[in-house]
Design goal:
With 74 residues, the protein is mainly α. It contains three helices and no strands.
């Protein structure tokens, strides 16, 4: 059965529009890399960097970066 927009009730139209908006948002905000394989070498490098930052060996605090750039935190 085919229904035209003119034949829909207000509630049916709202439900249709909501479903279309939800579908579009899911498309726009979906992870384009989902399902892709990360090579072991890259994964290991990222894990090493994460440990270095956690140990304070790498990275700078946001406050230090803002001070260097002469910006105020908002």
């Amino acid at each position: 059965m085919t229904t035209t927009v003119a034949e829909m009730t207000k509630e049916e139209l709202q439900e249709l529009i909501g479903a279309i908006v939800e579908e579009k948002l899911l498309q726009l905000f979906a992870d384009p890399d989902e399902g892709l394989h990360v090579q072991d070498e890259l994964r290991d490098r990222l894990l090493r960097q994460e440990r270095s930052v956690a140990a304070g060996e790498r990275g700078q605090s946001l406050d230090d970066v803002l001070a260097q750039l002469e910006l105020d935190a908002q």
